[in-house]
Structures are given as C-alpha cells and as structure tokens.
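Can anyone check this?
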Amino acid sequence: MINHFRRIFQGILCLLTVVLMFMEFSTAAAASGFPETAARKRLSLAGSWQAREKKSPRWFAVRVPGRLPAAKVYFLKREFQIPAHLKDYRFTLVVDGINFKSTIKINNQYVGDVPAGYEALSFKMEPGILHGGKNQIFIEIDAAQNFKYSLPVKGGLLEPELPRGIIRAIYIYAVPPVSLLKPAITYRIQNLSRIKLNIGADVVSETSAGTAGGKITVRIESPEGIALFSGDVPVVSGHVQTTIHIPAGRLWTPRFPVLYRVVLTLKNEAGQILDTWFTTVGFREFRVENGHFVLNRKPLKLKGITVFPKDFRQSGPDFGNWVKKLGANAVLFIYPPAPEMFREADSLGFFIFSGLPLWNSPADVWGNEVFLDNVSQFKKEFLENVQNHPSFCGFTAGVGNDGLGKDYFRFFPVKKPSKEKHFLTGAGFRTGTVETKSYPFDWVGFDLTNWVKPDWKKAVTHFRERFPAVPIIFSQVSVPFLKEHNRTEDQIRFEKRQGYTLWKTVREMLDSPDVAGCFVFTDRDYQGMYPTFLNPYVKDRRLFRMGLESNSNASPRLSWKMIHDLYTGNGPGFAEFVQNRDSGKTAFLLWGFAVIIFFLYFLKGNKRISGNFVRVFARPKGFYMELQSGRKIAWGHSLIINFSASAALAILTASLFFSAKESILFDFFMTQLLFFRGLKTQLIPLVWNPAVFVLVLTFFFFLFFSLLAVVLQTAAVMTGRSLKLRNALALVYWLSGVFIFLVPIAMVSARIWVYPVLKYLIFGLVLILFLWFVYRILKGMTVILHYSPGITALVMTGMAGLVLGILLWLYQVHSNFLPYLGYIFHVWKAGI
C-alpha cells in the first residue's frame, strides 16, 4: 500500500514538472544590448557641443548630457573622430534619451527621428554615412512640449518643467564587419532549480564567405565566475541555435540577486576571434495569482518608493545603494529611467516598475490619433529595451490618471492580461473608484493625491469585490495627501508628527492582506514642485517636508528613518502619538499688542498726529491741497503711521504663511513665484519663526510703500507736474494708515484662517481697504497734478503696467511660468 501511494505521488510530481516546463517561459536579462568588448567599441559623444536657437544665428557651448535653457527649437552639433582601424566596422547610433522630438543627421545624411522624450533608441547606419577621420553629427531638438500629442504632454499637475535636450548618454557603437547580430537568450524554469537555457544568434558578414566554417564558443559562468558550461556550436546558414541545461540553477530575488554570465565568442574556421558578446542572466518567475504578486512561486509584498527620473545624472551614483539601505525591494519610476538603472537594479536586487511618459495626461489627448500613435510606438520601443532584465517586472500606463475612466481604457492600446507574461502592465488612478466593467491590466495603482479623505480601506474593499484577481498597490503615499493635519508650530514636533503619520499609514497598508504593495513618494529626483516651501530642515529646493532623502546640509529626515525601520523590520518605529503645541501663535498676539500700544501712544500724545490721521479720513481734500502747496509734514509722524500700517499687514501676511503649512496649492503658488532658490531657502526658517518673520515683512511693506511713492513722483515728473518726493512719501504713508485697522484681526488671524467663512471675510475686508487706498491715491494725485480723474487714472495705470511688465519680464527670464497657469487652475479645481 505504501509503495502504491509512493508511485502515485511520484507520478503527480512528474506530471507537474512536465506542465511547468511548458507553462513557465521567461526572457533572460541582458546586462546591456550594447556591451563593450575587445571587438566591440563605444565611441562616446558626450562632452562639449555647439547649440543655437532655430531663430538665432549665434552658437553657444552646451554640455551633453545636459539641459537646454528654454522650451524652444534648438540645433546642436559636434564633430567626432572615427579611428582608422574602425573604418570598416558597422556602426549604430545609440541614444538613451532626448527631450523631446528630435531629428538626427550625420554628415548631412538623415539617420532617424526621436519621436518622444525619455525614449532609448538605436539607429543602424547605412554604409557610407560614417567614414574614417572627422565626422559631424547634427540634431534638431524641439525642446517644447505640446498639450495634445507630445510625449510627455505639456507640463503636468504640480510639475511645470521637465529636463530639455540630450539628457542621457549618446554614443556610436561599432561592431566588426563579421559579427553576431541580435543574440537572444530565453529560458524555462522547470522545477525551481533545473533551468533550460536557449541561446540563438545570427551572424552577419560583409562577404558571403565571412561565416563559412565558423563557430561560436558558448561559455556560461556562475555568479562566482566558475565555468558551468563551455562548448562550440557551428554556424549553419548564418545562424546558431543551442540549448543548455543548468541542473542546479539559483533564482534571482531582490534579497539574492543571482546573475549568471553568458559569453558568445565568434570564431572563423582557423580559430581566429572575430567578435565577442556577453550578457548577464537572472532567472526568475514573476506573476499574479489571486490578487497578489508571486515571485518564484512565493507571495511577494512590494515595499517600494516612487521617484521621478530627474535628468542626465539619473539618480546619482549611489541611488541603488540608497534604495537597498532603505530596505525597499521595488522602485516605481513615473517616467522611464535610463538603461543603466535597470542594470544597477539587476545587480543590487530591486524591482522596477517603469512608467510610460503618460503621467497626468489630460483626458482629451486620448482621442488624439497622433498621441495614440506615439504611445504605441513608445511602448513597442520601450519593451524591446527593458524586457530582458530580471529587475523589470512591469510598466504602468501612467500614474495618477485624473479619473479618465472608460475613455482611458477605450483609447489605451493594451491586450487582455495573461499569466504567461514575463512582465505585468498596470495603471494608476487618483481616485478610489475605477469606473469600468472590466479591468484590462494586471495590477492597479492608487495614490492619495486627489482624495477628499483618507478612506483607502474602503477603496480597496470596493475594488477587491469587483476585481478580486487584480493586485492593488498604493503608488504615491506621502504625508500631505494623507489628510491628517499636523498643525504644530514646533519644528521637531512637526517632523515627528509627519513621520508618525507616514509610518502608521504605510504599516497599515503593508499589514492589509488585500494590498499587494506600498510605494512611498520620495523627492529624490523630483523637480522640487511638490510641497517644498515650508520644510523646516530643507537647505535645497529639491527636497520637501515629507521626503525620505537625507541632504548634505541637513540632518537625515525622520520620515526616512521611520520607513527604513518599517521596511527592514529594525526598530519599533513610533510607539506613541506626538502632541501639538501652539507656541507660535502667541507671537502674533504679542506683535499685535505691541503695534497697538505703539500707535496709541503717539496718537494720544501728539495732537498733530491725531489731527492729521483724522483729517486723512474725514477731510482728505484739505490734506491733498496742503501737499500740493508744498507744505511739509514732519518725517517722524509719517514714519510712525507707515510703520504701524506695515506692521499690521506683516502680522496678517505672516499668519497666513504660518497657517498654510499644509496647503499644497499655496505652496505651489509660492514655488512658482520664488524662482531664486536662495530666497526660498531664507524664507523657510523665517516662516517657522513668526516673531522674526513679522519684522522682516514689516520692512518689506515699508519698502513697498516707499517705492510706490517713487512711482508717483516719477509719474508727476513725466507729466510735467511738480511733486516733491517728500510729499509723495507723505501721501502714501498717511493713506496707508487705513491698514492699521487690520491689527485686531491680524492678531487672531492665525487661529481663524482654518475657518472658510472667516477666511473669506478677512480677504474681503483686506480687498475693501486696498481698493479704498488705491482710490484715495488716485484722488490725491488728481488734486495735486490738476488732472481730471480719467487722465490721472490713465497715467497711474500706465505706470503700474510699466512696472508690472518689467517685473514679469524679469520673472520670465528666470522661469517660463506662462504655460503653467492652466495647471494652477487644475490644482485649485482638484481642491488640493
């Protein structure tokens, strides 16, 4: 009986082995499609190039890889040498990334087009294009994005600018006249240890006799460098094909990133080496089962981060080590990373979900045929470049697709999910509801950027009930989008609350059996346009308060430590919730009382001040006439009034900044306005120290009123009228006294900004007082200059327009902000 059951059990195992042999098919991981060997050479085109705008004759030097200065059409060129001993080689131009649409020529001959940004392409050059000695490459780059059909489309929510130009490596790849073409490696994992490896390649030659009697030596090395197989395979009709079995193969995992090395050496009949090609291979199975990710037939919970590939430096030389140190096993790139990032992930051990450049694409572009053609072509090229890496486990058709719903699924060219795929497709959404009857992707990603409340558990339950087989990941988890307000005025406590909120949310997601993975949104490579303004420790614009990265000028982020402890299982994290303090709001009360006491002291103690102050509001015409006649008003009196008014506005403004620490919309506006990084750096500690900030803002408003007086005096001179600067200052200073009435409100505004009705009432009152101030200025200038109200208004409007135009021009020089106004409205409409 025992032997009978033993034979049945052995038969079942054999049957399973046979089934798995036919079902488990994957593609091997190439270290690089263009390896450099003794026979194959890379001729780098990095370095100094010449560039000019299409409409300008002036050439200037640029670095490649690098960035172009503006969203315009540029011509780039450089000369390069082909060594004499390579003149008979076959050449391929390799471009790892040009933003955005480009046309390439070499020696005035067309080579090819780059249709989209972040696209890695290679162009095989016809014989005669390159020649030994000096050559010239010429590239026309359209560095401006389009709202309809470019990839990526123009701008994006909270992401106004992408790197422009040749942002990644570009080089000439030279192979011998007789060489291997399209080496392909596939494998089958038969029983999690026995691996069947299929190797194939074509052999090309400039002459038909080049491959006669040739052979290829195949060598397979273990991760330790030990030869597991070495043998010769004959070339038959210009092709070679062989199958090799690895009886005790080890599988690739993030914890143990085992890579085998495959070397193909082409030899002629005499044994002379003609070409050598190599790659690394990682064997693994990655699939979806019952709503979970499965790696090598074991459930896998993804603990990752979401980043933006920034520029030609990619993520820095230490990025992979940084990911591993954090304890993450996956990275989701919003845009495709550089090819070397996949090689780094292969060797260090972490998965990559790579996004197509569709992030924040508006819904209407999915009906544009040009856009859809670009998407299809990009997807094809993208998969050809990355599907041979064990670290690449899938791509996302956009992250944060503004609730496109049915239109998104109808337009995006994707097939029905299949378990036989070696990579997985997914899409990300900002809302917890995906309005479709069938979900055409392998996994779904939710983020928290557009959620009114953090009811992510309800969203997970709702989606799981409709699509139980689809894994759910959270692709952009970050503190501001958790909607758990951290209204504290102490920097250390603020940091602890942020860390606690993030840690608690991520822990709950990872503990949930219905969540397949969680990706914390990090600022490592981001443009700096997410909430950056009020980070207490930031010394660089590229960091924001909920980020994970450490900075050379700042202490490590507390959030980084919390996620590190959570991902690695080291340390208890937060044991208790950190309470708030309201120490900062007291500063506004003290400043308000100080201004009131200061103003009332002089108002009651000096009859001339009180008399003029009352007269400005009760009988302003007489005040204007005195200024027109040249009567002098004491400097000290004017300064007292203006200081009090400036302080009132300063208290109100500082309280607004102080209360808006969690407003993404407010931060986005300020980030757009403050194009000088140093200014933003200085404002960060000021916002967190309201007592000092009020003093700085008081000086700012005092300077503003003084400059306004200079503008009025300039307008009088330009119209041929006489107005002394002293009297212009007196006019503005005394009329600004109307803002003193804001002091009682400013004192408590930090406590009432959170109430929408009271907030709008304050804004309304400030607007009324400002309009009164402008009206009195116009009336005063009418009396002083002896002009009609219409002429005065015209003159003043012209001066204001001139000053505003100069400021906008200066701003435009530093930051091309005009195209992004629509996205500011987008942010406001989203209610973020």
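Reply from J.R.: I decoded it. Residues 167 and 312 are 4 Å apart (CA to CA).
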